[in-house]
Amino acid sequence: xxxxxxxxxxxxxxxxxxxxxxxxxxxxxxxxxxxxxxxxxxxxxxxxxxxxxxxxxxxxxxxxxxxxxxxxxxxxxxxxxxxxxxxxxxxxxxxxxxxxxxxxxxxxxxxxxxxxxxxxxxxxxxxxxxxxxxxxxxxxxxxxxxxxxxxxxxxxxxxxxxxxxxxxxxxxxxxxxxxxxxxxxxxxxxxxxxxxxxxxxxxxxxxxxxxxxxxxxxxxxxxxxxxxxxxxxxxxxxxxxxxxx
Length: 245
Description:
CATH superfamily of the domain at 18-155 and 217-243: CNF1/YfiH-like putative cysteine hydrolases
Number of helices: 6
């Protein structure tokens, strides 16, 4: 069974036993503003359409993904022990076949593994999570030396589309003065934020030097990506990562 042609298979130097995939809106049976491969059950889409989309995805994976009840927070959980979706925005798996998953529609999905492929992780990096330290928490939770980790940044809202207020900029400056470089003024009290740059800064603070991906904008490509900022009523994509034996 092949994946749709425009889904993303991360191009990064992960070990051969580590597999990763990021869906787009290509394929699927959802309609209207959710067309077509919507995976979000809390978006207002027909639940049966989402279930059908998830069933298609499941056939591409070693087991059912370990879905999370994401809340733009900083909690990190052990995916191997998940039975029901916990309230968290990142998960880590060490067992072969356990699929970490993050759903997004502008926030950046960040995938992790280590240089020997002994674990995988996925984190939901919206601005609130980034400002709160979700990536640093994920790196810490792996228990691996940050220098041994690799990270991959999936598609997210582009700098030209991400207008924020001074409160968002101030939240990042409170963590690091270097964050100023990720913001460009666009009007009184308004700034354009580069969320991929902010994610890279967070990873650098955590000691992760090998960072790949980034740069794909969900807002500007309506045919390929869902975007909450662009459409408000929309679907969700998924970023998934697992390891084989």
